[in-house]
Sequence to fold (298 residues):
Amino acid sequence: MDNRAEVREFLISRRAHVAPEQVGLPTGSNRRVKGLRRSEVATLAGLSVEYYTRLERGAISGASPQVLESIARALNLDDAERAHLFDLAHAASPVARPPRRRNAKSYVPHESLQWALDAVTAGPAFVRNGRLDLLAVNPLARAFYKDCYDMPGQAPNIARFTFLDDRAHEFYPDWDAFAEVTVSILRTEAGRDPHNKELHDLIGELSTRSDEFRTRWGAHNVRHHGTGFKTFNHPIVGEMTLAYEGLEMAAEPGLTLTIYAAEPGSPSAERLQLLSSWAASEYGQGVQPASEKTRTDS
Fold:
């Protein structure tokens, strides 16, 4: 898949985010572009204007790591944006091999992975791919994301739930922030894996059905999403503020293991315990992986 449009739009969007005064350039009164001009980026990066213009038009295949680093510095890219630029350049290479990605239809977790997830009893633990499919969960995560599993005819997917299910606006008290994170994760994955048909199908579906998604997708924002705090309003137990840690799985490239935890002794911890009791009565000790459930229900 030709990703020149992706490269072009990403670089233009990042250039628009850098004010001249941020990089020591005069603001001036006759600027016709938002942010930096191409010529200014080229100068800051130590490149000719002609070469940078070709790169910004999408001809990034063959650009050296040194050139990419110089552009990243000139545009003040953060770690996630820098990695995205390198992913786009790698994907543009004619000899690049598409990464192996797991989707909800083909992925069956190892029995030992399910054992490990089930061993986490104090908080939701789940495995997702870059498309935000829920691939394997412990009982508490199944209860936590119960509404994601209630979307008929679809494997549980956090992005589809966020943008296409009205219940998401209740589940996420700060829905706008969650929406931004969701789109940024998908945009990051699209840069890493531009050949993923299932990912492009999802993006196309969300773009067609959600104006909120389409607007955010056009911003070309990316981010690393590994640790922090989130507040949820769960339909069974109410509001909880939880810490989260996302761990890349060495044995399964492209998959992330995420664990949520509440501060010990807090009201959120009490509500997680209530949800755990509800999950035990509702689901028992075992939860089918998403792929198995989809096949069973079809």
